[in-house]
Design a protein that fits this description.
The chain contains 7 helices and 12 strands. By secondary structure, it is an alpha+beta fold.
């Protein structure tokens, strides 16, 4: 059985490779080594393995002292000193002359705790409850071999289980865990023995929280975040104001086009070709001008030969996303552009990557419906000033005319 528990621990370790790829909306704060340590204890109900499948025998109480270090929102380190079996004065042991028989004298274990809830749902500073996996290993002073009576033996111990925790205030957490463990000396570590112990642990942890240095640093970050949030709101208001102003201009142009089309309809039957052509050119010119008002006044700019959105442009993208959310019935065309350096083939490919990356961020990070966003890479852009000017390396947004 100890092989199965070791295998469980290895599988738990493999989760570390994939857990970072699971999306999360909030960003977990970075803490120093001395922040977020916890200390606690548990009362353990133990089903001792030497009684086999007879659940009516071998039930005893134990206790554990626990120290934990929170690494991030998914992973914790755990260190525990356990006394899984207190003196068990059962009739069959008394009759065997083993009144002071211990199932386990003491064990020291260390391992990892993996939060299933946070890995799937992402980090949330307000979340109170969590379901998690445990995998621990260590050494134990074992007395569970009846044939040795009270002769002790230092052996390996491996444990695995599932737990539920509930954070009922800022520093205090209650938990319940179900675990199995096995223990073996070097000579029989891979024997197929059925001597597992089963644990039900009920306990409490006190988290000391961030250090003073981390609290000061996070407070400064919070202040900067508030300033960024205020700046974002200002940009959103500015962008929405410009969009509203464009809508007013569009309505004026639409009214003007409607008047000219009526006038054109009256001129055509009269056979006045010159007047009809003049009116049609004016209508086309106004419609072309009208198209410019469907463009959002923000474009996302890129560094040379790059298609990832840098931090300075993310705030603009957040403002665009807010406007899109505030206008849920509107669809958008996204166009990617490059400057005039490089080959046409390279620039076409790069412009497609840029516009696809912006769409990905709008969908994955900001929750914009994918079917509202149409993308197209335009390659080299219309020339704005110098050929290397950054406005040529952009993704632009146009509202769809329906």
């Amino acid at each position: 059985m100890i092989k199965k528990i070791f295998t469980f621990g290895l599988l738990l370790g493999l989760l570390a490779v994939n857990s970072t790829s699971i999306a999360q909306e909030q960003e977990y704060p970075h803490y120093g080594f001395w922040s977020n340590w916890s200390i606690g204890a548990s009362v353990d109900l133990v089903k001792q393995g030497h009684h086999g499948s007879d659940w009516g025998k071998g039930i005893s109480l134990g206790a554990s002292l626990i120290v934990e270090k929170e690494l991030n929102h998914v992973w914790d380190l755990r260190f525990a000193f356990q006394v899984p079996g207190f003196i068990n004065k059962e009739t069959d042991l008394v009759n065997a002359g083993m009144e002071d028989y211990f199932d386990r004298y003491a064990s020291a274990v260390a391992g990892a705790k993996f939060s299933i809830t946070d890995a799937i749902m992402g980090y949330d500073s307000l979340r109170r409850s969590s379901i998690y996996l445990l995998a621990l290993g260590g050494v134990s002073y074992d007395r569970n071999d009846i044939t040795r009576r009270l002769d002790g033996d230092f052996v390996f111990v491996a444990q695995a289980g599932l737990g539920y925790s509930y954070k009922f205030c800022k520093h205090s957490t209650f938990f319940v865990e179900g675990m199995v463990d096995d223990h073996a000396s070097v000579r029989n570590i891979f024997d197929n023995r059925k001597m597992m112990d089963f644990f039900l642990n009920i306990g409490y942890l006190y988290n000391f929280g961030p250090t003073a240095a981390d609290r000061a640093r996070l407070a400064q970050i919070s202040l900067l975040t508030k300033e960024n949030f205020d700046a974002l709101n200002s940009q959103v208001s500015d962008l929405q104001g410009k969009v509203d102003n464009k809508d007013k201009q569009i309505k004026k142009l639409e009214a003007r086009v409607s008047e000219l089309e009526k006038e054109l309809a009256n001129v055509i039957p009269q056979g006045n070709t010159a007047a009809a052509d003049s009116l049609q050119r004016l209508i086309d010119q106004i419609k072309a001008e009208q198209m410019t008002f469907y463009a959002l006044p923000f474009s996302i700019l890129f560094d040379v030969d790059q298609y990832t959105v840098n931090e300075s442009e993310m705030q603009k993208l957040a403002a665009v996303a807010r406007v899109m959310k505030d206008n849920p019935g509107t669809k958008y065309n996204l166009y990617g552009f490059c400057d005039h350096t490089g080959s046409d083939k390279y620039n076409q490919s790069l412009s497609v990557k840029r516009v696809n990356e912006v769409k990905r961020l709008l969908v994955k990070r900001y929750g914009i419906a994918e079917d509202r966003l149409m993308t197209e890479g335009k390659g080299k852009s219309v020339w704005f000033g110098d050929v290397k000017y950054s406005i040529n390396r952009r993704v632009s947004f146009y509202r769809v005319i329906e």
